[in-house]
Specification:
The protein has 18 helices and eight strands. Helix content is about 40%, strand content about 10%. The chain has two domains: about 180 residues, 3-Layer(aba) Sandwich (D-Maltodextrin-Binding Protein, domain 2), CATH 3.40.190; about 220 residues, D-Maltodextrin-Binding Protein, domain 2. Keywords: Signal.
Length: about 450
C-alpha cells in the first residue's frame, strides 16, 4: 500500500517476480499440527497451527456448527507450510479452500491480484459483528489500496518489553515507564548474572524475516533508519541502519541469551518462562503464556512499551486474519464462520471454556473493557492495547518510505530478501563476520529488489 499521492513503482518485469515471491511467503515460527479435509457442502478452512487456532478447531463443531448447521473441515499446518499452501491455492483460484488465515503482510498483494473476496458489504450488513469495535490499526492494515476491506482479524499483536519485577527490585533497579534503548542496554548490563544462569535480555537472533528481522527492524525504525527511501534507494549501509544493527548485535552478544543465533520467539519465551533472562523484547502475544496458570513466572513480570530512540513509539503490528478466497462458491457461509470466529461472542466462549488468558485478543476495543478479561490479563492489557493503537505502519520511523509496514517491507520479495539479510545478521551475532560485512552483503541484496521498483 503506497502512500497516497506518492509515485507508484514501475512494474517492469513484475508478474513472474511477484508470483515467485508469493510462493515464498513463510516465516520462522512452526509447531505441531494436524490436517483434515472434506469436500461436499462443508466449509473448508486452511489455517496456521498456532494455539489459538487449535482451540478454535476444538470449539467449532460443538458451537458454530450446532448453531448454524454449517459443517467446517479444517486443514491445520505449521506457519511456513500454511503460507505456501495458501499462496498456491489462492493464486490459482482453485477454490479448494474457502477461508484461510492470512496476515497484514501479504493481504495487499492478494487483494491487488484479485484473490480475495471483499468483505465490506458483509461487515456493514452484520451489525452484531460491530466492525467499529475492531482496533483502527488492524482495520486499516486489512484494507487494501482500493479502499476495500479484505480480511477480519482473529487476533492482533504488537511488541513490548517484558521484565522480571522481582529481579529488578532485588537489584534496586527501576524500569522507566517508557524506556529508551540506551536505558535498556544499561539495565541488561546491570541484571546480567543477577541470578544463577540469568542473562540480561533475550532478543531474537534466529534467521528468518519473521524472526530476527522483526525486532531488529523496529530498532532500525526508531533509530532513524529504513530499508528503502520512498524512491526505493536501499539504505542498509546508511549510518542510521548501521547504528541500529550494531547496537542490536552488540547487546545480544554482550548480555543476551546463550545460543542467540539459534534463538527465536519460542526459545526466548522458554528462557523467560524458565527464569533464564531478566528482560525480553518481543510480541505482546507472549504475555498470555507468561501469565498462564502453571507458569513459573506468573505475576513476576512487568510490561512496558517497546523501547524507543528517536520516535514516540516503536512497537510492530501483526495480525492473523481470515480471508475469503474469491473463487469460493460458499462466500455467505464463509462470512458466517469468519463473523463467529472473530466475534465478541467467540471471545466470551473461549473465556468461559478455557480461561480469559487464552482469548484471541488484540483486535477489539471491547476486549480491553471486559472486566473478566482484565481480571486475568490486567498486568499487560493496557500496554498491549496502547502498543497496537499507537502502531503506524505507514509512518513507523523518522523518514518516508515506499510501502506500509513496521517490522517488514510491504512487497512480496521481502520474504526472500528479509530471510537472506537475516542470515547475514545472525552470522554477525554468532561472531562469524562483522556487522559492516553483513550489511554490505545485505545492501547488494536490497539493490536487486529496488531495481524492480524504481
Amino acid at each position: 500500500m503506497p502512500h497516497p499521492g506518492r509515485r507508484r513503482p514501475r512494474m517492469r518485469g513484475r508478474t513472474c517476480a511477484v508470483t515467485a515471491a508469493l510462493a515464498l511467503l513463510a516465516t520462522g515460527c512452526a509447531g505441531a499440527g494436524g490436517t483434515s479435509f472434506g469436500g461436499g457442502d462443508a466449509l473448508n478452512v486452511l489455517m496456521v497451527n498456532n494455539p489459538q487456532m487449535v482451540e478454535l478447531q476444538k470449539l467449532t463443531a460443538k458451537h458454530f456448527t450446532k448453531e448454524t448447521g454449517i459443517k467446517v473441515h479444517f486443514t491445520v499446518l505449521p506457519e511456513n507450510d500454511v503460507r505456501d499452501k495458501i499462496s498456491q491455492d489462492f493464486s490459482n483460484q482453485a477454490g479448494q479452500y474457502d477461508v484461510a488465515t492470512i496476515s497484514n503482510f501479504e493481504l495487499p498483494f492478494f487483494a491487488k491480484n484479485g484473490w480475495l473476496h471483499p468483505l465490506d458489504d458483509y461487515a456493514n450488513a452484520d451489525t452484531a459483528f460491530d466492525q467499529e469495535d475492531i482496533l483502527a490499526p488492524l482495520r486499516e492494515s486489512l484494507t487494501a489500496e482500493d479502499g476495500k476491506l479484505y480480511a477480519q482479524p482473529f487476533y492482533g499483536e504488537s511488541s513490548f518489553l517484558m521484565y522480571r519485577k522481582d529481579v529488578f527490585e532485588k537489584q534496586g533497579l527501576t524500569m522507566p515507564e517508557k524506556p529508551t534503548w540506551e536505558q535498556v542496554a544499561k539495565l541488561a548490563e546491570q541484571t546480567d548474572g543477577s541470578e544463577r544462569g540469568m542473562k540480561g535480555i533475550c532478543l531474537r537472533g534466529l534467521p528468518g524475516w519473521g524472526e530476527v528481522i522483526a525486532p531488529l527492524t523496529t530498532v532500525v525504525n526508531t533509530m532513524g533508519g529504513t530499508w528503502f527511501t520512498e524512491d526505493w534507494e536501499p539504505r542498509l549501509t546508511a549510518p542510521e541502519f548501521k547504528k541500529a544493527t550494531k547496537f542490536y548485535v552488540d547487546l545480544v552478544r554482550e548480555h543476551g541469551e546463550l545460543g542467540a543465533p539459534q534463538s527465536g520467539y519460542a526459545e526466548c519465551l522458554n528462557n523467560m518462562t524458565q527464569g533464564k533472562t531478566a528482560m525480553w523484547y518481543d510480541a505482546t502475544a507472549g504475555a498470555g503464556s507468561l501469565e498462564a496458570k502453571g507458569s513459573p513466572v506468573k505475576g513476576k513480570i512487568g510490561y512496558v512499551p517497546a523501547p524507543v530512540d528517536r520516535t514516540k513509539s516503536s512497537g510492530w503490528l501483526y495480525t492473523w486474519a481470515w480471508g475469503l478466497q474469491k473463487a469460493s462458491k460458499k462466500a455467505d457461509d464463509a462470512w458466517k464462520f469468519v463473523s463467529w470466529a472473530s466475534s465478541k461472542e467467540y471471545e466470551e466462549l473461549v473465556g468461559a471454556t478455557s480461561g480469559w488468558s487464552n482469548v484471541p485478543a488484540g483486535k477489539r476495543a471491547s476486549t480491553y473493557a471486559n472486566p473478566d478479561y482484565r481480571a486475568e490479563a490486567g498486568a499487560f492489557a493496557d500496554v498491549t492495547e496502547l502498543a497496537i493503537s499507537e502502531a503506524d505502519p505507514k509512518n513507523p520511523g523518522t523518514q518516508p518510505r515506499p510501502t506500509a509496514g513496521i517490522q517488514f517491507v510491504g512487497v512480496p520479495e521481502f520474504t526472500d530478501l528479509g530471510t537472506r539479510v537475516a542470515q547475514e545478521i545472525s552470522a554477525a551475532i554468532a561472531g562469524r563476520q562483522s556487522v559492516d560485512a553483513a550489511l554490505a552483503a545485505s545492501q547488494k541484496l536490497a539493490e536487486k529488489v529496488a531495481e524492480e521498483y524504481r
